[in-house]
Write a structure and sequence with these properties.
The chain is an alpha/beta fold and about 650 residues long. The protein has 21 helices and 15 strands. β12, α19 and β13 form a beta-alpha-beta unit. Bound molecules: CU2-O2 cluster (CUO).
Length: about 650
C-alpha cells in the first residue's frame, strides 16, 4: 500500500496562552528562513535590527554584564571568526568553540527581545552553520526558548538531509520557474547488500532524532548537571544499533559487525551529497585500511584509549584526574563510562581516557583524505545530521556498545528479589496486529536555494519513501493484590537469528528494543491496562513543516491570536519507526511486558503527567530521568537462569510483525 502523506501534524492544541509566543515563533522562523541569504527585507523589524543593532550597546541586558558579547565582538572585529559560506562541523574544535561563544551570548540574554536582536546581528556576521547550531542549542536549553517550536532541520539545512541530485533539480526548477517535486532515492545500487537497510540509516526522521539527541545532550555541555547523561549516551545509541540489527534481520542480513582498528573498514560509502559550500562529501571505498588522520588521531592512540577503558572495566574502577579511584562495578558505573567513552565534558579524566568515540567519528570521517592532500571537507561521519547514513556509523557504535556490554556483563545478574513485584500477576497480554508498510513523504527543500527577493516563489519539494506501521494497542491483563501505582516496561526482541535459529534469552536480550515505559495505577483485583502505540514514551510524531510554522505564526501575529502548535521535543525516535519492518509471512519477536512497583518512578506525578512524553531515550528536559532502574532494565544484565527471570509480574509471548 502506498500513501502520499503531505504532513499535517495532528497535534493537540495545548500551548502557552501567551500571544507573545506567536511573535517569538515568527522571529525564530524568520531568522532561519533561507539561512545563507541575508534576512529578507520584508521581515521588517528583524532586518532593521540586523543593520542597526550594536550588541555592545546593550550589554546591560546580559546577565553576565556583556562578557560573552564583548569576547565574541572582539573575535569578530579581529577577523578571527570562520567566514560565511563555508562548511561547519561540530567536531571541528575551533568552529565548535565559535558556535559556543554565540550560544553563550544567547544564554546570557535577559529577555527575548535582546536575544532576537543579537541573533539578527550575528546571523549577518557569523558563519551560517555556527549560527544555526547556536540558535538551536539556545532555544533548546534556555528558558527564553520555551514554547518555541524548532523547525525540522531537514527543511532548514536540506543539503545535510538530501542529495546533490535533488538540490540540482531544485535549482533547475527555480531557474525555469517551474514548481517541482523530485523523488529522492537512497544512496547506492542493488549490488550493495547494505542498500537493503539504507531506508533506515537515511531516514530523515532518524537523522533528525540523532541530531536533536545530541543537541539535548551535547558532549561539550559544562553547565549544570544533566541527569544520567553518560548512561543516556550508552542507551540511546545502544537502541539505535538494536533497531538497525532488527531492520537487517527482516532484510535477510546478519547483524552489523563491529569496527576493528586493525582490519579494513569492510563497507565503503558514497554519499552523493554536497555541502552548500565546500564541495562534495568525500567517498570511502570498500575495504579501506585505517590510516592515521593528520591533526586528529593515530589508530595506535585510539587503541591505547580503548585499552585503558577496558582495563578500567576489568579492574572495576576508573582513575580520576587527581589519581583517586571511583568504583564502577555498580549500576552507576555505566553513567561514568558513558561520559568517558563519548567523551563528554563530564569525563572525570579526559587527559587519560581521551575521547574514544568522538575521535573515532573524526577518524572515520577523514579516511578519504587522511593526509589532507586534497582539501576535502569533513566526511559524512562528522555531522550528527548525516552520520547514520554511513554503515560505518553502526559498526562504530556496535564496537562502542561492545565495550559497554563488557562492563554490564561484569555486574551480577538480577536476583529474583530484584525482579519480583509480588503485588502483580500478569495473566495475559493482548496486542492488535503488528504490521509495517512503506509510504511516501514530502518535505520542502526550497530553503536550500538562495534567491533574489524579486524571484517569484516556486514550490520545490522532495519525496522519499519511509517506513511506517499501523497503529496498535496493548491490553495488559493483571491481577493485583492491592491498589498501587506501577511501572510498565514493554520490549520487543527478535526471536531468531538470520539463520532462523532460535536465540537463547541471554543471546537475544542485548537486542531488546524498548517500545514504551509508563506509569499507571492498578486496583485490587482484575485490571486491564490499555495502552496505544501512539502514546509511546520513546517516539515523537512528525515535526511541523517549516512552511506551516511560517504561515501559522504570521497569521497569529497579524490577528493578535495565539499560536496553536504544541512544542514537541525533537529528541525521540519517529513514531513511524516504533516497529522494525516485518516480513510478508510475519517475523517473530518476543513481546515482553514487565510490571514493577511505582516506586521505580523518580517523580510523584508520572501517572498523570508525562512531561512531553519522550523520556525513554531522552529523559525529561530539565528534570531527572524518570525511571530509577538502569536503562534497559531488566535486559541490561546477563540472564544465565531463565527460571529467575520468569516472575509473575513479567510476561513474554511471541508476536509476528507483518510487512505489506
Ligand atoms: Cu550519536 Cu556516535 O554519537 O553519533
Amino acid at each position: 500500500m502506498r500513501w502520499v502523506v503531505v504532513v499535517t501534524a495532528l497535534l493537540v492544541v495545548t500551548v502557552s496562552a501567551d500571544i507573545n509566543v506567536a511573535h517569538k515563533q515568527q522571529d525564530i522562523n524568520h531568522l532561519l528562513y533561507k539561512i545563507t541569504s541575508p534576512i529578507k527585507s520584508s521581515f521588517n523589524d528583524l532586518k532593521e535590527m540586523s543593520e542597526t543593532w550594536n550588541p555592545r550597546e546593550h550589554m546591560d541586558l546580559c546577565s553576565d554584564g556583556g562578557a560573552a558579547v564583548e569576547w565574541l565582538m572582539g573575535e569578530l572585529e579581529n577577523h578571527r571568526l570562520l567566514k560565511q559560506h563555508h562548511w561547519f562541523s561540530l567536531f571541528n574544535d575551533r568552529q565548535r568553540t565559535e558556535a559556543l561563544w554565540l550560544f553563550e551570548v544567547f544564554m546570557q540574554c535577559t529577555d527575548f527581545e535582546v536575544f532576537r536582536n543579537n541573533a539578527a546581528y550575528f546571523r549577518e556576521h557569523m558563519n551560517e552553520g555556527e549560527f544555526v547550531y547556536a540558535l538551536y542549542a539556545a532555544v533548546t536549553h534556555s528558558d527564553i526558548g520555551q514554547y518555541i517550536v524548532l523547525p525540522p532541520l531537514y527543511e532548514i539545512t536540506p543539503h545535510l538531509f538530501t542529495n546533490s541530485e535533488i538540490i540540482n533539480k531544485a535549482y533547475t526548477a527555480l531557474m525555469t520557474q517551474t514548481p517541482g517535486n523530485f523523488r529522492m532515492n537512497f544512496t547506492g545500487s542493488k549490488r550493495n547488500t547494505e542498500q537493503r537497510v539504507a531506508y533506515f540509516g537515511e531516514d530523515i526522521g532518524i537523522n533528525s532524532h540523532h541530531v536533536h539527541w545530541h543537541l539535548d545532550f551535547p558532549f561539550w555541555w559544562n553547565r549544570d548537571k544533566i541527569d544520567r547523561k553518560g548512561e543516556l549516551f550508552f542507551w540511546a545509541h545502544h537502541q539505535l544499533v538494536a533497531r538497525y540489527d532488527a531492520e537487517r534481520l527482516s532484510n535477510y542480513l546478519p547483524p552489523v559487525d563491529e569496527l576493528y582498528w586493525d582490519s579494513p573498514i569492510k563497507d565503503g560509502f558514497a554519499a552523493h551529497t554536497s555541502y552548500k559550500y565546500g564541495g562534495e562529501f568525500p567517498t570511502r571505498p570498500d575495504n579501506k585500511e585505517f590510516e592515521d588522520v593528520e591533526g586528529v588521531a593515530c589508530a595506535r592512540d585510539i587503541k591505547l584509549l580503548e585499552s585503558r577503558i577496558r582495563d578500567a572495566i576489568a579492574l572495576g574502577y576508573i582513575i580520576n584526574i587527581n589519581g583517586s579511584h571511583t568504583d564502577i562495578n555498580n549500576e552507576h558505573g555505566i553513567d561514568i563510562l558513558g561520559d568517558i567513552i563519548e567523551s563528554s565534558a563530564y569525563s572525570p579524566n579526559a587527559a587519560y581516557y581521551g575521547s574514544l568515540h568522538n575521535q573515532a567519528h573524526r577518524v572515520l570521517g577523514a579516511q578519504a583524505d587522511p593526509k589532507r592532500k586534497f582539501g576535502m571537507p569533513p566526511g559524512i561521519m562528522e555531522h550528527f545530521e548525516t552520520a547514520t547514513r554511513d554503515p560505518a556509523f553502526f559498526r562504530l557504535h556496535k564496537y562502542i556498545n561492545g565495550i559497554f556490554k563488557e562492563h554490564k556483563d561484569k555486574l551480577p545478574p538480577y536476583t529474583e528479589q530484584e525482579l519480583l513485584y509480588s503485588n502483580v500477576n500478569i495473566t495475559n497480554v493482548k496486542v492488535s496486529k503488528l504490521s509495517t508498510y512503506f509510504e511516501d513523504f514530502v518535505f520542502d527543500v526550497s530553503n536550500a536555494l538562495d534567491t533574489p527577493e524579486s524571484f517569484s516563489y516556486v514550490s520545490v519539494t522532495a519525496t522519499i519513501s519511509r517506513l511506517n506501521h499501523e497503529p496498535f494497542t496493548y491490553n495488559i491483563h493483571v491481577q493485583a493484590k492491592h491498589d498501587d501505582e506501577v511501572t510498565v516496561r514493554i520490549y520487543i526482541t527478535p526471536k531468531r537469528d538470520e539463520n532462523n535459529i532460535v536465540l537463547d534469552i541471554d543471546e537475544s536480550r542485548w537486542g531488546a528494543i524498548l517500545l514504551d515505559t509508563f506509569w499507571t495505577k492498578v486496583h485490587a483485583g482484575d485490571n486491564v491496562i490499555t495502552r496505544k502505540s501512539s502514546q509511546s514514551s520513546v517516539a515523537i510524531p512528525d515535526r511541523v513543516p517549516f512552511f506551516e510554522l511560517l504561515e501559522d505564526a504570521d497569521e497569529a501575529v497579524a490577528n493578535d491570536a495565539q499560536l496553536l502548535h504544541q512544542e514537541i521535543r525533537g529528541c525521540g525516535h519517529p513514531m513511524r519507526l516504533l516497529l522494525p519492518k516485518g516480513t510478508k509471512e510475519g517475523l517473530d519477536f518476543w513481546l515482553d511486558v514487565i510490571v514493577t512497583s511505582g516506586d521505580d518512578a523518580v517523580h510523584d506525578e508520572l501517572t498523570i503527567e508525562n512531561h512531553g512524553s519522550t523520556h525513554g531515550y531522552c529523559g525529561i528536559h530539565g528534570m531527572k530521568y524518570p525511571d530509577k532502574r538502569p536503562m534497559g532494565f531488566p535486559f541490561d544484565r546477563r540472564i544465565p537462569e531463565i527460571g529467575v527471570f520468569k516472575v509473575p509480574n513479567q510476561h513474554g509471548q511471541v508476536v509476528k510483525i507483518f510487512h505489506h
